[in-house]
Design brief:
The protein is mainly alpha-helical. Helix content is 36%, strand content 0%. It folds into two domains: 40-154, no CATH class; 160-210, no CATH class. The chain has eleven helices and no strands. The radius of gyration is 28 Å and the shape is elongated.
Length: 215
């Protein structure tokens, strides 16, 4: 009888004892990253340099156009929600990191950057251009939007003929040299830009030729 009672006692007490000996579950410290209430005003506390002032006077910073980034979610429209990035609890250290545009391991993954741009530029609203990026030659070659474009300038370099040619020349130097025959045909190359004929945002350029092969 005593053995039977001892067995029952062990059966009812062991599970509780075993649970008590298990290590505590790790404390969850994850917080959801959300848009800040003050938007760009919160960002400008730290990021108030020349590039931020330029953005205010650019197309993307036109607050009178409801479809621009600055008129919607401000800086976070492109760089993502920043509640944790600016929170006092994390000392503004950026946890998790915001979307950072550029090329290299110090910046956000290319697909993340492109997705941020396509969030607006996949449809024609507010006068912005629509691009068919997925079928373009630049996308197939893993080019970033920020490789050519800079929205933290009053005027995007790609909207200025001279700066556009200089930007394209960084990669397409040999292709530009082929256009030297323009002078022989009395064509004023200075009045043109690469975008006059080529559209790198689509599979075919403005003359109906394949943007990559030129045929």
């Amino acid at each position: 009888m005593k053995c039977f009672l001892l067995t029952l006692l062990l059966l009812f007490t062991l599970p509780g004892w075993a649970v008590a000996q298990q290590p505590d579950e790790p404390i969850r410290t994850h917080r959801e990253q959300v848009y800040t209430e003050k938007g760009a005003e919160a960002c400008l506390r730290c990021h108030s340099g020349e590039k931020m002032r330029n953005l205010k006077d650019s197309v993307h910073g036109n607050i009178e156009n409801m479809f621009t980034p600055l008129a919607s979610q401000g800086c976070e429209a492109c760089h993502g929600p920043g509640s944790i990035h600016i929170s006092r609890a994390h000392g503004g250290a950026g946890f998790p990191k915001m979307i950072d545009f550029g090329r290299g391991s110090n910046f956000s993954p290319r697909d993340v950057q492109v997705e941020a741009c396509l969030a607006c530029h996949h449809e024609d609203k507010g006068g912005r251009s629509v691009i068919e990026w997925q079928s373009s030659s630049h996308n197939r070659k893993s080019i970033n939007c920020s490789t050519c474009h800079s929205i933290h300038e009053v005027t995007d370099p790609m909207h200025d003929a001279d700066q556009q040619v200089a930007t394209c020349n960084r990669c397409h130097r040999k292709a530009l040299q082929k256009h030297e025959h323009f002078e022989e045909r009395n064509i004023n190359f200075d009045a043109l830009s690469c975008g006059t004929c080529h559209n790198v945002h689509e599979a075919f350029d403005r003359e109906g030729r394949h943007a990559e092969s030129g045929q």
